[in-house]
Structure formats: structure tokens, C-alpha cells
Design goal:
Distance between the termini: 34 Å
Strand order of the largest sheet: 3-6-8-9-10-11
Structural class: alpha+beta
Order of helices and strands: HEEHEEEEEEHHEEEEEH
Radius of gyration: 16 Å
Length: 188
Amino acid sequence: MSANPQPMTETDYLAFERNAEIKHEFIDGEVYAMAGASQAHIDITGNIFGTLFGKLAGSPCRPQTSDLRVRIAEAGYYAYPDVTVVCGERQLLEGEAAAVLLNPTVIFEVLSPGTESRDRGPKSRDYRALPSLQAYLLVAQAEAHVEFYRRAGDGWHVTDVVGIGAAIELAALGVTLTMSEIYSGVIE
């Protein structure tokens, strides 16, 4: 649901978000309030962040929680991915009190009924237009299933990773993430 029925500019959105009590995404001039998450969503997001935090310790890559906003300049889009990983120096939007990342390396979105169509559609397309992004993962809640988009020399390749015994090799990060790590305590 749109938080503001009148279209906004990016400048208006940033000013609005500075004073907001809840987070909002900005898509094509519309502002969308971020809804609360299910317990499965919270657990999966925590599992991904926690596992990556441990596996990436000492590397130039660092996972970030959903409090980090990502800007997709070409699309005029601001989003709060569930988990973002940035490798190397973080490029942040200048002049903003809250961090706005410009160069994510990997993005995870845990699918929810209210956001799935955006996560698969315009958000997926816009994220994958970011030159820094190397992988985009859409994580199901009700079953052990991840759609794994990875950048290759000839474009983007998608793989369906299915089953609790499967694993995802995140070459951009130099780590492997197992489905049992992602779904620990959610799906056994």
C-alpha cells in the first residue's frame, strides 16, 4: 500500500524518510510502508545474516541487515533488502544521516505474499541493473527453495536451488551457503 497517494520526488522521499517512524521503500515516485514480517521470514533472514557474518569474518565482504537502504539510481528506486553484502569499500549516498548504499555485491530477499510480485518483477530487474551486483537471491518461506541469480560474462543466469540438502556457491563472496543453514529452525 502506498503511504502517500501523491507522487514524490527522490528529494521529497529522502526528507520524508528522515522523519518517518517506520521504513518505506520508494518506487517510481510512490512511497510504500514496510510491513511487519512473519516469524519464518525473521528466522530465515537471521539465519542468512548470521551464517554470512561468521563465514565472511576477516574478508573484505560484510553482510548488512535490512536497516541498510540501497539506492538504484537509474530507476530512482530505494529499497531495504532483507540481507545485503557489500565487498570492499562501501559507497554511500552523501548528505544522508541514515546510510544509503550504492554498491551492493549480493542481495537476499525473503519472499512474502505482499512483496513477492515486486521482488520478482521490477525490483529484481532494477537490482540486476546495478553494476556492482553479482548475485540476487529470492528465498521462499514455506519450502526449501531459492532462486539464485548470478552475474556471468554473458548476462544473468538463474538456478533453482531446491531441497534442504542443497547448497549455493556464492563465488562473489568465496563462500558456500547451505540450505540447511538458511532454513535452520524453519524447515528441517
